[in-house]
Amino acid sequence: MFRRLYNWTLTWAGSRHAPKALGVISFTESSFFPIPADVLFVPMCLSRPERAMRYALIASVMSVLGGVFGWVIGHYFFDLVARPMLEAAGKIDDFEAMKGGTGDAAILLMLVTSGFSHIPPMKVVTILSGVIGFDLKWFILSAIIARGGRFYLLAWLLQKYGVAMAAFVERRFAWIAAGLTAAAAIGWAIWRFA
């Protein structure tokens, strides 16, 4: 089923409705959809590099709005909506483990790491942020920085280096994500404790 959903998402990349589909996928990915927006974003940027920054804007704005929607679900509708979604996705145990030892600093760090690298999944972090009542202003600011940074950086790299960059990112994504996560963690620690 996951493979069919992935392929269905990918078919939108060549459609004239691709920007709208990117907006919808970016919004839903941040709150409940299991496929990352990159599946649509990367082929769109490669096929129309002159529009890559426009696509980054669409993906960033809609991803942040989707994150706010996930926060609202977690804050106001956890038992009604979020718990069944997390159970269906097999993420309820991960969610409960994170919830147990999570404070504001951990949420902020997870927002940055999930925004850049999808680790942990963004939808889990947005819902968790709402459940623990993480300050919505800080939530929005960190989501703008993390998601915007990710999409704009990826758009720039794809514009500049094209298919070669896509292949490089695909092969080394785990290392790139780990490096960005480590840099974000170090930056946060310096800001917090300096």
List its salient traits.
194 residues; mainly alpha; 9 helices; 0% strand; globular
What does this structure look like?
This protein has 194 residues and is mainly alpha-helical. Helix content is 82%, strand content 0%. The protein has 9 helices and no strands. The protein has helices at 2-11, 18-29, 38-47, 52-76, 78-88, 92-100, 104-117, 122-132, 136-193. α3 packs across α9 (136-193), α4 (52-76) crosses α5 (78-88) and α7 packs antiparallel against α8. The longest helix has 58 residues, at 136-193. The protein is globular and about 45 Å long.
The count of domains is: 1
Integer-rounded radius of gyration: 16 Å
Helical residue percent band? over 70%
Structure classification: mainly alpha
In angstroms, what separates the terminal alpha carbons?
Answer: 48 Å
Beta-strand residue percentage: under 5%
Number of strands: 0
Q: What's the total helix number?
A: 9
Mean pLDDT: 79
Provide the succession of SSEs: HHHHHHHHH
